[in-house]
Design goal:
With 305 residues, the chain is of the alpha/beta class. 35% of the residues lie in helices and 19% in strands. A seven-stranded parallel beta sheet has the order 3-2-1-4-5-6-11, with helices on both faces. A two-stranded parallel ribbon has the order 7-10. Bound molecules: nicotinamide-adenine-dinucleotide.
């Protein structure tokens, strides 16, 4: 077992991180999961914690990551402040949780001779309203501290790739699936289940590219497996199709077998108008392509498949 690869997953107790831990363990990897939560608050890790190849470390990575990468082959760094509104309320904390944590983990990775560093970044770095699928060469233009911190973290990944820690940034679009607590899809599901109207911020015609969580996990697995240096490059990780929030409510309603009713709210600060991935680059270089279609992903998320 000594040569079983070990992957450090930060943000392991979160939505995507916990699914990634499960997938890595299923592949036969050893996983060291890190999060700021105490073990008793890690409901998402229930399955992983029963696995002999899983180890959990509680640590605030914005403070330090000393020693965490010893014996680790690769890192998937997901720990971050994951909410745009929270980043507007508390930009300094966003910087610490997202940017400083990235720097701390990269330093620990460099010290330990880690071979591959995979950053969970975000499509929010584009901050664009362009009415076309966005390609990675479009300059970043963050609209929120959340996006600014992700853009900065990506630059650290690039810099450390020149310093011996080969890395990559995965710009997720809107990820959804079981265990997600925040975000538009869980909010819609809760509204339908409670017989309440769906809250619509702005006119509801803002569009998003929704990616099922298993596909976000698959993108990480492709990035870990990639044999050649990735040089700190960024890749879009989405489906390549966008739908409006209004259309999404109709689709969720269809799966729940209910007609949507809407409650109008003003548009939110920092909200992007149009967001859709051009996925050509990830497909060509990483061999990654999303496989779960929205209706199927919604059925699984709602416990109906
Ligand atoms: N969910 C999405 O749609 C989406 C889209 C784009 C990017 N992302 C990125 O993917 C990653 C995972 O997102 P998620 O939806 O699973 O979010 P999440 O909030 O469920 O998970 C993030 C985890 O990071 C942990 N964390 C935060 N700050 C920390 C710190 N200083 N030290 C240790 N742990 C810390 C949190 O406790 C949490 O468990 C994040 O980096 C997020 O920005 C997510």
């Amino acid at each position: 077992m000594a040569d079983t690869p070990t992957v450090l997953v930060t943000g392991a107790a979160g939505f995507i991180g916990s699914h990634l831990c499960d997938a890595l363990l299923a592949e036969g990897k050893r996983v060291r999961g890190v999060d700021r939560h105490e073990l008793e608050d890690c409901a998402n890790l229930q399955g992983a914690l029963t696995h002999a190849n899983f180890e959990y470390v509680s640590r605030d990575l914005g403070q330090e990551a000393e020693g965490l990468c010893m014996g680790v082959d690769s890192v998937c760094h997901l720990a971050a402040m994951s909410s745009v509104p929270d980043s507007i309320t508390d930009p300094r904390r966003c910087h610490t949780d997202t940017c400083t944590s990235t720097l701390n983990v990269l330093q620990a990775a460099r010290k330990a001779g880690v071979k591959r560093f995979v950053l969970s970044s975000s499509a929010s770095v584009y901050g664009t309203t362009l009415e076309a699928p966005v390609v990675e060469s479009v300059p970043t233009a963050p609209l929120s501290p959340y996006a600014a911190a992700k853009a900065a973290a990506e630059q650290y990944v690039r810099a450390f790739a020149r310093m011996g820690v080969d890395g990559v940034s995965l710009r997720y679009f809107n990820v959804y699936g079981p265990r997600q607590e925040r975000g538009v899809i869980p909010a819609m599901i809760r509204a339908f289940n409670a017989g309440r109207p769906v809250t619509m911020f702005g006119d509801g015609n803002q569009s998003r590219d929704f990616l099922y969580v298993a596909d976000a996990v698959a993108a990480n697995l492709h990035a870990l497996r990639h044999q050649r240096p990735l040089g700190g490059e960024a890749f879009n990780v989405g489906c390549g199709h966008a739908i409006t929030i209004r259309e999404l409510a109709v689709q969720v309603g269809r799966v729940a077998d209910k007609q949507p009713a809407f409650e109008q709210q003003p548009a939110r600060e920092g909200d992007i108008r149009y967001s859709c991935a051009d996925v050509t680059h990830a497909k060509r270089v990483l061999g990654f392509e999303a496989t779960v279609r929205l209706p199927q992903g919604l059925r699984i998320t709602m416990g109906l498949a």
